[in-house]
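Hi there, hope your week has been kind to you so far. Would you mind checking whether the tokens look sensible for this chain? I owe you a coffee for this, so here goes:
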Amino acid sequence: MAAKKSLREREKELKTLLATPAGRGELEALESRYAAQGAGLRAERTSLITYILVHERERGLISNG
């Protein structure tokens, strides 16, 4: 099993993806998958990165360290 990433590591990774059209598409697909898993819809003023981080943190996918 892969080691959990820290919040800062994951945020940096997501910001890097957001910088390219292909990466943006990956993030939007991830958002759709998380919404389908029951995370709910992203609020209008919530960033895509924040939405993903909150979901992953709630699921224990991000370490607190």
Remarks:
- The chain has one domain: 5-63.
- The chain has a mean pLDDT of 89.
- The radius of gyration is 12 Å.
